[in-house]
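#onboarding

Welcome to the new folks! Below is a worked example of what a typical request in this channel looks like: someone posts a single protein sequence, and someone else replies with the predicted structure as tokens. Don't worry about understanding the tokens yet, we'll cover that in week two.

Example request:
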Amino acid sequence: MPSVDGYELKAHPLVILNNAPSGLFNVPSAVPYLTGVNKEDGVEVILEDRNLGEFTNFLEVDHEYQKQFLIEYVFRHNYTMNKEAIVEAIDSYYTYWPDPADVWRIREKFID
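Example response:
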């Protein structure tokens, strides 16, 4: 279970957030509500890709892999009418511009 300020939560965070206003849970923090993202959330995507694991041991995430993933992700979640622009914007954000061919840096940015 996750922890807040060193105290382990008594239930799943979503259950606590849904029931905190009713007083069923005491949130152990001076901050009433704080949310964010974790670093390295992209690891889950890489580990779920069986082809990537079979052929490259989950190591080689190149620009083509990143672009293909973004296209599938944006089209699957149907973000906007201009999906190509969204793909380009996300791709530009996560591209390692000092050396766009560096597969290790691309992988690092993809995971972050």
